[in-house]
What does this fold into?
Amino acid sequence: MEQDQRFSNWQTKLDSTLSVLVRDVSDLKTQWKGIQKSNFEIEKSMDYINCAYEEIKFKISCLENEKKEFEERIVNLERQLQDVNLQSRLSTMELRNVPTKLHEKPEDLKRLVFDIGKVLNLNITNADIRDIYRIPGKSTGSKPIVAEFVSVSTRNQLLSAARQYNKSKPIAEKLNTETLGISGAKEAIYIDEHLSPMLRKLMYETLLMAKAHNYSCWHANGKILVRIHPDGKPIQIKSQECVTFLVKKTGNCY
It folds into this structure.
């Protein structure tokens, strides 16, 4: 009897233990299913993230290509605008450092150009000048005078004659207010092409670069030119990229 009772107790304990094991295994299965589900959700999320990442990479690539195209278009438009400005300014000339006359009128400015023509042995008449004016601005000094001629050849003749005149004279006798009979302190008068603001800025930057590298730099007919070697061919500077090219001496200059 006692042996049967012990066996019955052992059987009860075994059943209880098995019941606990079955329950634990069931819980593990449930947990495993939860882990599998979580892994599946994570994989789905990773797939979504990867797809989103690839899409973002594609959009960034498209934006970079568009940016490059826009930059090229802007450069082309700037060059076209520069060409238009050049064509419109081929017949214009700029006079600098001319004192402003009280109650000054366009006729006074025209008379100044006529007097310059006489000094340079050129017969400039009223019919040769389409328009003449001082450039507006906040400068406290005498503002530059812009003279627009009817023909490009007349302007070129005057510029060429002024350069030859100054070249043949010592510094003190170059074209000045005294030469033109303008009262007041003797001041040098400068005659040059009338560059657009964009070309003026580019010319300034090119001059700084040329001075730093001992290059020759000048502008003629609206073109900025640089000569690296005394016997070398002039290089036209059309943009800031050209200035950078000459500094680095690599790449191409268009």
Remarks:
- The first helix runs from residue 2 to 89.
- The chain has a mean pLDDT of 83.
- Strands lie at 92-96, 129-134, 145-149, 190-193, 216-220, 223-227, 235-237.
- The helical segments are 2-89, 106-119, 152-168, 197-213, 240-248.
